[in-house]
């Protein structure tokens, strides 16, 4: 039974867990047996009509899992053939034991001739692969793809980097992946998520105290990470206890994005929401706002006066605001108050990020919500580092900026300056629509206004944003997304 579905282990952390399990006296070959039998069980359950299971075995422990699976399938009466990269190579350790225990011959990969009715069991390379796949395996990957054969990957599709989620030259496109104890970043990060198919996590008997000890600060973004910090209205609640969120509007022809953020903030639990509007946009904003309040804010001096007189909890700046010195001046006038900086607000600091970062040193009060292009503008050197995963990049950016970074995309990563990070997985494809980012900024802003710490507010906002999109359904607009926002049951 998997104890914690939010756990993610890098390949290095999983290797540490395996080593610690063996050092504690657990039979490592026994773990391999359980892994291989789990793969065989998945193969028989998913593809009972298979004419031949083609088991591709590599030189390491991933191949050992494959030999165990092949033996188990043969004992169940299935047709099985094993193919290896190098028939002369004798695996060491547990993989060697597994190969010797398997009565089936290991045939050279060059002898493989695919047939209709085959199911491929990919046990060549696991999550720890750090080099491009060899040429002969690339040819097999291409042939399997051309035939359209189902592939069950052991741990991770061969050729896929378990840390970065990117193909190393080429990778199998699996229909099902069986991994052990915990998922790896490569299962969630794009494009790896698309290459893994359905991911099945199997408990092979490593104690959870060992798994938790080996794990770092990376998690799957799930309510267990932040549910306990959500504000829950009670009989003593009033609007000021639930926080006052202010959203800055652009000029008269660019007001819609700010209103989306404001409405999302109100729907997400802020007690009060005010749109701070330039004079020329007051009329158009007033014509569209009801429960959201409106205040004229023309310059940085007006912000300082408002801060001195108002009960303001958090701010959103960027959606439709415009790029330039005004955005920078407004941000710096906020004097370190909790802020979600999005879109134009981020781009305004692309040539001079240090004043922004310096203004938010110390307690983490800034949330940056860049998409790929905005991230590259603000952190160009980090963005171009090919050897870093999206998680690594987000964490590096968070540390540099002293901010929580919400690195958006189908695999949104939320990272904190202290190294914590979470990968989101509940966002549907139709969330990629105009205005959805404005809605997200308002949702995170509301949670900041409620008093949630920045990392948890960002993670909760991203998750609830995905849930709202699932609720709204395919073809939704940003307006429909706002109407689909619901609180999470915190009981």
Largest sheet: 10 strands, mixed
Q: What is the domain total for the residues? A: 2
Unreliable spans are none
How many β-strand runs? 17
Strand order of the largest sheet: 8-17-16-15-14-13-12-9-10-11
Q: What is the rounded Rg?
A: 26 Å
How would you sum up this structure in a few lines?
With 491 residues, the protein is an alpha/beta fold. The chain has helices spanning 11-23, 28-46, 61-75, 93-101, 135-147, 185-188, 192-195, 208-214, 256-267, 282-286, 300-309, 325-333, 344-347, 354-359, 372-378, 380-383, 390-401, 436-449, 454-472, 478-483, and strands at residues 52-57, 80-84, 106-108, 118-123, 151-154, 176-180, 198-202, 218-220, 244-248, 272-277, 293-296, 314-317, 339-341, 366-368, 404-407, 413-415, 421-423. The protein has two domains: 11-215, 3-Layer(aba) Sandwich (Rossmann fold); 223-483, Ribokinase (UDP-N-acetylmuramoyl-L-alanine:D-glutamate ligase), CATH 3.40.1190.20.
